[in-house]
Structure formats: structure tokens, C-alpha cells
Amino acid sequence: MLGWYVCRYENSRAWQALMDRIAPPRVVISDGGSGFAKALAKRWPTSNHQRCLFHVFAQVRRYTTSAPKTIAGKALYELAKRLFKIQSIDDAYTWIDGLLAWREEFDDFLREMTVDENGNKRATHERLLKAEAGLLRLIRDDTLFTYLTFVDITVPTTNNRLEGGVNAQLRGMLRDHRGLSLERRLKAVYWWCYEHSPRPLSVAEILKCMPTDKTIAATYRRIMRNNRPDNILPQWGDAIVWNEFHMSTEFPIYWD
Asked: What are phi and psi of 72, to 5 degrees?
């Protein structure tokens, strides 16, 4: 555990705040979360980017399902499963050729159009096209087979070490202590991260810099205040009620 950052939403600004705390690595593996690529270009411009192959496969599976109904869907699903068997640059080129051959074989099928209930024409097999587009974008961005370009180090092809070694542990801890308030859930996460850092501070030092319930609550109030648009009504019943000041008759009705 080298660094962590608590954020309300996963976006480029949050990723940049986290990256500012960590020295740029030679290569970084990500699941393609929202805003990550933009933050990477700004904060770690010299780092190489490898997309997690399991998340790439899962994205294809989301569009094809694990039991495709069409021949084209089955072929693309099998092609996605072969991502895990690529061990060399030649294997990568063979896989890319397979994707291009898939498109050529099913081109007429993929060009079929359907008129929806609103009278608009749209691709009949839109989900397959989206799956293909996602793969082609990763190839163009050169983030699908980055791990094959390193000969002096072994680059992981997935972020399973993070998902299973950190995220799963944090979720399990919070699940076991589901009665904690939000402030104490955050503090529990802080403690876990501190304890699993390479050179954790002593308990006495941690207590000096650990956020308190009061500071965490104040931070959330500030975030809510800054993010709330000025043109919306408050949510907790402190807005003016129209009929309290506008009576339809001369006999007011005071019940809700």
C-alpha cells in the first residue's frame, strides 16, 4: 500500500490527487476507470499503461453474455477468452488478425439495421459493435499488450493483486462492521491502509495525523455545500412551502 485518497466520485481530479502522492512507475495496470487516462497523461506522462485483461474480457462478456445466441457473438466471445493465452508479440499480432478476420467474416451481419419503436434506424447488433469498438480503441491506444514490451521485468496483465489483496479485504472489513457510522468506516479504512503501508508509523504518530469524526464530518459538509447547485430547493424540509403564503380561500387550511 503506497498511497490512498478518499474521494466522493472516481474522476480525473481524484486520480490526480492520488498520483501526486506516488512516484511515477514504469508501467501501471488499470481497469480503465473513469478519468484515469486523463490523469495519467497529466501526472505520470512517462509511465506506460496496461489495461487489465480481465476487465477487457469482462467488458466483451457484458455485451455478448457468457452464452451468446449468434455465431458472431460466440466467435467474439471465444476471441476475448484467448486474450489470457497471449505470451509473445507474435501471439498479439495473431490475435489482432483474428479480430480483423472476425469483422470481415461477419461484416454483412454486423451492418444489419433495425427500425426501433420511435421510427429510428439503429444497428441490429449494436452490442457486438460496441464490444468490437472497445477492443479496437485499446489497440489504437497501445494499452492492450503493453506487458509484452518489457523484457527485464514481469508486468502483470491484471490488477487482481489490488482487487483481491486490498479492495476485497477492505470490503470484508466493512461488511464485518456494517454498524459503523460513515465517519468511523472511513477511519477504519485509514487504519487498514496505514497498517499495510511499507513502513507504517507508530500508533502514537498515527493518532496525531488521523482524521477525527469531527474533521471528517466537516469535510463532507463542505463538499455537499460546494457541490449543491444554487437553483435547487433544500432536501430536508427547510424550503418555503408555496401554499403557506397563498390561500385559495379566505379560510386557511393548516394541515399537510
From this structure: -65, -40
Radius of gyration of the chain (CA): 26
The rounded distance, in Å, linking the Cα atoms of 174 and 70 is: 42
DSSP state of 250: S
How far is Cα 12 from Cα 29, in angstroms, rounded to an integer? 16
Measure the CA–CA gap between 149 and 92, rounded to whole angstroms. 11
For residues 111 and 204, give the distance between their C-alpha atoms in angstroms, rounded to a whole number: 66
pLDDT in tens, 154-188: 999 999 888 888 889 999 999 999 898 888 888 88
Quote the pTM value: 0.77
The CA–CA distances, whole Å, from 46 to 27, 127, 147, 201 equal 9, 35, 15, 31
CB 5 within 8 A of CB 21: yes
| Contact residues for 200 (Cβ-Cβ < 8 A; gap 6+) | 194, 206
- Give the whole-angstrom CA distance, residue 149 versus residue 97: 19
Q: What is the pLDDT of residue 213?
A: 77
Q: Are the C-beta atoms of residues 60 and 80 closer than 8 Å to each other? A: yes
pLDDT in tens, 7-26: 878 899 999 999 998 999 99
Distance CA(75)–CA(130), nearest Å, equals: 15
Q: What is the DSSP string of 64-96?
A: H-SS-SSHHHHHHHHHHHGGGG--SHHHHHHHH
Distance of CA 32 to the CA centre of its chain: 6
